[in-house]
Amino acid sequence: MSVLNPLPDTALPRIDVPRVIDMHGHCGAPEAETLLAGRPERQAEMEAQAKGTGAASMAHNLAVMLPAAGARMASLDKRLADLDLMGVDLQVVSPSPHLYAYWADPTLAADLVEAANTAAAGLVARAPDRLAGMGIVAMQHPDLAADQIRQARA
Q1: Is the pLDDT of residue 148 over 80?
Q2: Is the pLDDT of residue 103 over 90?
Q3: Where do the domains of the chain lie?
Q4: How many CA atoms lie within 13 A of 137 on its CB side?
Q5: Which of 69, 86, 90, 87 shows the shortest CA–CA distance to 23?
Q6: Which CATH class is domain 21-153?
Q7: What is the share, in percent, of the chain residues with pLDDT greater than 90?
Q8: For 130, phi and psi rounded to 5 degrees?
Q9: Rounded distance, CA 92 to CA 126, Å?
Q10: Which one of 18, 44, 57, 139 is least enclosed by Cβ atoms within 10 Å?
């Protein structure tokens, strides 16, 4: 383990349980990212986050955490290898929180949710024995969110 790679160098010893499930994994969604690119609301959201997080933390995240995490989220092979190292049998993945965009109007919110959930479902479909999905809904628009939940259950 190191600051740049917080994962173990060799596989962790297995514990005596039927199945190890990681309930907190994120995945990227390039189409959703494209929908957010260049929007002033997105820029304002990032500026508020930077102000609240602090300059040192933001600098560390940009230089260390995000490149390492991004590479792992972008590569199914790396994700599965990491799960193997950690002794995880199944990981539940959901779209990254920076895609929530609670400021989005109903049309953009619907498009974001569809793109983000489609990306998560696509990742799960590539390794269904190791990954499960958890989607997002447009919480800022309750009627839309309720429709999205009904659609996800169908």
Answers
A1: yes
A2: yes
A3: 21-153
A4: 14
A5: 90
A6: alpha beta
A7: 63
A8: -120, -15
A9: 14
A10: 18
3-state secondary structure (DSSP) of residue 144? helix
Would you state the structure tokens that stand for residue 13, as one six-digit string? 């010893």
Q: Give the residue from 24, 8, 136 showing the smallest Cα distance to 91.
A: 24
- Confidence band, pLDDT 50/70/90 cuts, at residue 91: very high
Please give the pLDDT value at position 105. Answer: 97
Burial readout 127-136 (b: 16 or more C-beta within 10 A, e: otherwise): beebbbbebb
The structure's pTM equals 0.84
Beta carbons within 8 Å of 92's beta carbon, 6+ residues apart? 21, 22, 23, 24, 25, 131, 132, 133, 134
pLDDT of residue 4: 58
Q: How long, in residues, is the chain?
A: 154
The encoded tokens of residue 15 equal 């514990």
